[in-house]
From TrEMBL:
It comes from the Bacteria. The gene is hisI. This is Histidine biosynthesis bifunctional protein HisIE. It comes from Belliella pelovolcani. Pathway: Amino-acid biosynthesis; L-histidine biosynthesis; L-histidine from 5-phospho-alpha-D-ribose 1-diphosphate: step 2/9; Amino-acid biosynthesis; L-histidine biosynthesis; L-histidine from 5-phospho-alpha-D-ribose 1-diphosphate: step 3/9. GO terms for biological process: L-histidine biosynthetic process.
């Protein structure tokens, strides 16, 4: 049963599947799938392709152990291309590279967008157990005060050589800064626009 409404007839029974890192948004590789490969992928939560050269199904990582664990699977607007967001275990390419396009896949900054979404949800759907919700409940002055406190603490830690403590304060400052932006009703993208505009004027 074609549960995803994929138009296999348009592409001779195989559709391209773009694999994207669920955490970094980096494109990892491209493969092809038939209905059986999709069914197995959905059942096992490990990306499985149809190999056109070997004329058989193969699960990515079946020999290397570098599996691609599925986070989500969507179909494009023409119903003939799949986008799979996955969490890779080890290098994706057989050459040992992070991706099949010889790109590094190290950045974790994409998580900021996920964190922003969580913060927004805590503001719109507060719960008693949420520290973030409690900050919003205390008002803008308290949120701004917390940003100031964390800024002072990171300055203090910057003078020492304890990386663990410094990184902890850095994380605290970034988190509270994002809470402050949400409390003000501003988007991080607006801050990025200011930085981009300044850069372009140089």
């Amino acid at each position: 049963m074609n549960k995803l409404n994929i138009d296999f007839e348009k592409v001779d029974g195989l559709v391209p599947a773009i694999i994207q890192d669920a955490d970094t948004n980096k494109v990892l590789m491209l493969g092809y799938m038939n209905q059986e490969a999709i069914d197995i992928t959905l059942e096992t939560k490990k990306v499985t392709f149809f190999s056109r050269t070997k004329n058989r199904l193969w699960t990515k990582g079946e020999t290397s152990g570098n599996f691609l664990h599925v986070a989500s699977l969507t179909v494009d607007c023409d119903n003939d291309t799949i986008l799979i967001k996955a969490k890779p275990v080890g290098p994706v390419c057989h050459t040992g590279d992070d991706t099949c396009f010889a790109e590094e896949n190290k950045s974790k900054t994409f998580f900021i967008d996920e964190l922003r979404a969580i913060i927004k949800d805590r503001k719109n759907n507060p719960t008693d157990k949420s520290y973030t919700a409690s900050l919003f409940a205390k008002g803008i002055n308290k949120v701004a005060q917390k940003v100031g406190e964390e800024a002072v603490e990171i300055v203090i830690e910057a003078k020492d050589d304890n990386k663990e403590l410094f990184m902890g304060e850095a994380a605290d400052l970034l988190y509270h800064y994002l809470v402050l932006l949400e409390a003000k009703g501003y988007e991080l993208d607006e801050v990025m626009e200011v930085l981009i505009d300044r850069h372009q004027k140089k």
